Amino acid sequence: MHIQIQRFSLYKQIELFQGTQAFMRDKIGKAAADKLFGEGYYVVAMGANDFINNYLLPVYSDSWTYTGDTFVKYMVATLEAQLKLLHALGARRLTFFGLGPMGCIPLQRYLTSSGGCQESTNKLARSFNAEAAALMERLSASLPNATFRFGEAYDYFQDIIDRPYAYGFNNSRAPCCTLGRIRPTLTCTPLSTLCKDRSKYVFWDEYHPTDRANELIALETLRKLNITVVVNNGTSG
């Protein structure tokens, strides 16, 4: 049995959303469905794979077609067109989540001689975040009834990486899931070995934070957006 895993572009996801809209209109009627779409809260996150698995890999043409600045502008221009399309489909309340310190993920650290963060990669993330935040303000001001917001937790995530013990972690450099001493392993496989306590690691694999790190980052982002959530222990966060 062969399992293929694919990533869908945001344009493809919007196309699938249009199919969902048509299905919902058939089910509950156009008026009720359009009310649902107009009152819904939309969340969009993109960018990390476009940099880490595209622009920052020399095997792809984008890495020599664009400079860092021009690639960021290309990304933001594409994002603008996609968000305008979502607005045309009924999205009125939307939050776009920015990038974290990509240069500090285990894969990027492994590619340096010192094992430290790659500042050039982090600079790309900060530049993209600044452009995306400005875009959200422009779209909120120009699109009818739009409230488009930027969700940012770059500095908070960087602080977790820099001071892991302050947040209950003891490792912010290596992934919990590895293949012995073989690195980089890119992702977990049935042959991988796991750390004894994943809640003590900031990163699950070469790319992604652990559940615990993601929870902290999400709560901080929501706090900045003045959104109150109820966490697992029943208290508000």
What topology does this entry show?
Elements lengths: L9 H19 L1 H10 L1 E5 L2 H8 L6 H4 L2 H21 L4 E5 L8 H5 L8 H24 L4 E5 L2 H9 L8 E5 L1 E2 L14 E2 L6 E3 L7 H14 L13
Parallel strand pairs: 1-2, 2-3, 4-7
Antiparallel strand pairs: 5-6
Helix pairs in contact: 1-2, 5-7
Concise overview:
This protein has 237 residues and is mainly α. It folds into two domains: 124 residues, Rossmann fold; 77 residues, no CATH class.
What key attributes describe this structure?
237 residues; mainly alpha; Rossmann fold; 2 domains; three-stranded parallel beta sheet; two-stranded parallel sheet; 9 helices; 48% helix
Characterization of this structure:
With 237 residues, the protein is mainly α. It folds into 2 domains: 29-152, SGNH hydrolase (Rossmann fold, 3-Layer(aba) Sandwich), CATH 3.40.50; 155-231, no CATH class. The protein is built from 9 helices and 7 strands; from the N terminus they run H-H-E-H-H-H-E-H-H-E-H-E-E-E-E-H. The protein has helices spanning 10-28, 30-39, 48-55, 62-65, 68-88, 106-110, 119-142, 154-162, 211-224, and strands spanning 41-45, 93-97, 147-151, 171-175, 177-178, 193-194, 201-203. Helix 1 packs across helix 2 and helix 5 (68-88) packs parallel to helix 7.
